[in-house]
Amino acid sequence: MRLSELLSCLPFYEMTGPAFDPVIQSISHHHQDVNPGALFIALKGGRADGKDFIDQAILNGAVAILCDRDFTLPIPVVQVSNLRQALAQITNLFYEYPSYNMNVIGVTGTNGKTTVSHMIESVISQEGEQTGVIGTLYMKQGNHTKKALNTTPDNLLLQQTLLDFLSQKVTTAIIEVSSHGLAQGRMFGCDVDIAVFTNLTQDHLDYHGSMDHYKWSKSLLFSQLGHQHFTNYPKFAIINNDDPFSATISQSTSAHIISYGLTEQSDVYASNVHFGRHDTSFTVHTPIGSTSIGIPVVGVFNVYNALAAISTAVAKKISLSDIAKGLSTLPSVPGRFELVEAKQTFTVIVDYAHTPDSLRNVLQAIAMMKAKRIFVVVGCGGDRDRTKRPLMAKVACDNATDVIFTSDNPRSESPTAIIKDMEQGVVGCRYTVLPDRREAIEFAINQAAIDDVILIAGKGHEKVQIIGDQTLPFDDKKVAYEILTKSNNSLLANE
Ligand SMILES: CC(=O)N[C@H]1[C@@H](OP(=O)(O)OP(=O)(O)OC[C@H]2O[C@@H](n3ccc(=O)[nH]c3=O)[C@H](O)[C@@H]2O)O[C@H](CO)[C@@H](O)[C@@H]1O[C@H](C)C(=O)N[C@@H](C)C(=O)N[C@H](CCC(=O)O)C(=O)O
Ligand SMILES: Nc1ncnc2c1ncn2[C@@H]1O[C@H](COP(=O)(O)OP(=O)(O)OP(=O)(O)O)[C@@H](O)[C@H]1O
Ligand SMILES: N[C@H](CCC[C@H](N)C(=O)O)C(=O)O
Ligand SMILES: [Mg+2]
Q1: pTM here?
Q2: DSSP H helical segments within 316-460, as ranges?
Q3: N or C terminus of the chain: which is more exposed, having fewer CB within 10 Å?
Q4: What is residue 101's DSSP assignment?
């Protein structure tokens, strides 16, 4: 495609540099990805400025630059005033509007995005639909997965991935949409059809600065649904009615709303909820009828997650029997309430709870297991919201009998300084401090006895620990298993 054709989607721009109209073979915003024939987008970010890489991009073969500043260069320079919007429009045109040619479901909220995305996937695939999932764990189509740096990919990678999905005959894409992604316009130009809201509690204040900014970012997914009601894929907003923030979200969209919750005031609601040790059952009532649901996961929060998935399926006109089947056969989601089994007499759970609310929810689910003692091994991420640290520590103390404070991913911060921040939230609570995460897990395992439960919180599926500028292999599940089998073997040796 010629540069001039690509620019036809922009209402205004200025061009400088040589007057020729190169063929654009690819688009990139990172100089290392630039191939001959590329249009290089010089974005100013939080850490780097794309303008500093223009020379290298040209050396790598860039034939034109798109930017929001004035440069004199030996290749055409296109200057726009709203670069992130222009990038979205240009990539959409270049990739032939992939999101307009499939059903796109966006899931947002503080907690539960990954879980709900997988529940939706499980339900939709009952009807034989090809699905693609984009989120924290991976970008996944069928059994093919690709690891990504971000939960919500940048605009370019998002469009490329959706195009890739289309070529694999995907008809529904399920995208986990983070508040960072929304605030940075990573979703611009992505035609979402069904927007799902899980819940909103404190997180990411390091980035957003205030809860108001965090809430505003989340609401963008709903306002950006647009006003088209007669498209191939009708627009729906799926909203958790029991969350106080829902009222604001309802006001920010003109799409059809399906509300869900635990009372009859919602369009989709659950009754007769029964919690087993490893599963949960309930009756769901929807505008298309009622049915019994069984899910192989525990906790009130997972009832909410299932209701979000059921409401999405109702919007997609999926039958109640397929909804029930999809949820009952839900594959386990890596690092979410995962059991570590090494024939020990107590329960060990690895879970990704890394916010005050998710930690409280997961510990309350554990309380229903009627354990003798509940151990929690928990830390807080460095270079992330400092104000959630004391809150998470308090939740740990309020909901567990044995509390071990340790390191999560300290990143550039001192592990002991992070733990000191956590300690500010607890008074009159006995706890142990072991900054080395392996030692902390080992300590809990050595203390635990029959019928106790250990929760190893915060890192879930993660396979590394980031300490300073080092990224070291570390997998909570593997570490716990190694320690459990070592202690089992030493018990056998002593018998
Ligand atoms: C703070 C933040 O969100 N940063 C995101 C942002 O980076 P940035 O704007 O700072 O980019 P930058 O590194 O300054 O680079 C600026 C420009 O120079 C270019 N560049 C840069 C370096 C170079 O050598 N060459 C080069 O060309 C870059 O391609 C870019 O176009 O834009 C990048 C592309 O979209 C993201 O990858 C990056 O996420 C970083 C890695 C990150 O850690 N983000 C986290 C906080 C995040 O976004 N998390 C949410 C999930 C949160 C949750 O819900 O739990 C997520 O969606 O992942
Ligand atoms: N609906 C929910 N409400 C509160 N906590 C939840 C909910 N669903 C899951 N959790 C807890 O939060 C943790 C993370 O869940 P999940 O990965 O689904 O959330 P997420 O929103 O994708 O998180 P992230 O923002 O890191 O991508 C789980 O391990 C569980 O402890
Ligand atoms: N998406 C979240 C993940 C946090 C996971 C936790 N293990 C940490 O490192 O703080 C973030 O980047 O804030
Ligand atoms: Mg996630």
Answers
A1: 0.95
A2: 320-328, 356-367, 388-399, 415-423, 437-447
A3: C
A4: G
